[in-house]
Amino acid sequence: MALQIPPNCDLTLGLVCVDKSVPGTTVWTMRVDERFLNPAGLVQGGFLAAMLDSAMGASAVTGAGEHKVSVANTEMKISFLRPVRLDARLTCTARVLKSGRVISFLEGRIIDQDNQVVATASSSYLIRERPG
């Protein structure tokens, strides 16, 4: 099965990778639109979690170096620190803390346009070699 890059989930969120120059670290941006708001007018936390998951997953892949790998999130702990409102410009930086052959450990954080941290996460990713 061919990989779709970027995946539909990233396209739906409007995620854009702005930096992957350092192996094991990626930086992503998105602008919040009304589709991501809960009834209180704030971003629903699942969308922030999805941004963190996408960024950390990409970092796990780039952290594997020359190896072609597929990764799967096995667990994620997230902390929501501030509310996020309509039209916010979010930046997510994710990095590998420890890269392994089977499991890699990562962290990510999202800041808003005012450089305020809105969410952080830590996660473990299962690493599998991809044929070809």
Account of the 3D structure:
- It is elongated and about 45 Å long.
- The chain has one domain: Hotdog Thioesterase (Thiol Ester Dehydrase, Chain A), CATH 3.10.129.10.
- The mean pLDDT is 92.
- By secondary structure, the chain is an alpha+beta fold.
- The protein is built from two helices and six strands.
- Strand 1 and strand 2 form a beta hairpin.
Helical amount: 10-25%
For the record, give the distance between the C-alpha atoms at the N and C termini, rounded to a whole number.
11 Å
Q: How many domains in all? A: 1
CATH topology category name? Thiol Ester Dehydrase, Chain A
Overall average residue pLDDT:
92
Name of the CATH architecture: Roll
Give the oligomeric state of the chains in this entry, treating copies of one chain as homo and distinct chains as hetero. single chain
Biggest sheet: strands, sense, closure? Answer: 6 strands, antiparallel
Strand and helix order: HEEHEEEE
Strand order of the largest sheet: 1-2-4-5-6-3
Low-confidence spans: pLDDT under 50, at least 5 residues? none
CATH level 4 superfamily:
Hotdog Thioesterase
